[in-house]
Design goal:
By secondary structure, the protein is mostly helical. The protein is 64% helix and 0% strand.
């Protein structure tokens, strides 16, 4: 060995670790809250059409953005978005009796596609964890 010390590995080179139990419980709670927001949005968007649709999408955006900022990581925004998507997809299936939650209209499609677009935008805008190194600017 030459006695050289290796520089600390970057955050991208480190192996992934499972989240702590507290953080896992937080993500699970956000997932359930996202599912509840999806169910409530599915009911509201059909009941009060233009205003209910905007209210449902604003609730999803507020939850995803707020969770991402509160947690400080992108996973905080992704967890409620996944819960919302799972709940809404499960509501689109018809039951054996022939009942379903979404009518075959433009509002339902706007809710589904708009909700997916809102989830992607919120997950993209969420803060990303930065490595603990110093600034890497040229000319320093």
């Amino acid at each position: 060995m030459s006695g050289r010390t290796e520089p600390p590995a970057s955050a991208l080179a480190r192996p992934l670790r499972p989240p702590s139990p507290g953080r896992a419980a937080l993500y699970l709670g956000l997932l359930v809250l996202g599912a509840l927001t999806g169910v409530a949005g599915a009911l509201v968007q059909g009941a009060w059409f233009p205003g209910g649709l905007l209210l449902a999408l604003a609730a999803e955006a507020g939850l995803c953005l707020g969770a991402g900022r509160a947690v400080g990581r992108r996973g905080g925004a992704v967890a409620p978005a996944v819960g919302w998507a799972v709940a809404v997809v499960l509501l689109t299936t018809s039951r054996p009796e022939g009942d379903f939650a979404f009518a075959a209209g433009g509002g339902s499609y706007l809710f589904l596609l708009g909700g997916i677009a809102v989830a992607v935008m919120c997950a993209t805008l969420a803060p990303v964890r930065q490595p603990n190194g110093g600034d890497a600017r040229l000319g320093k």
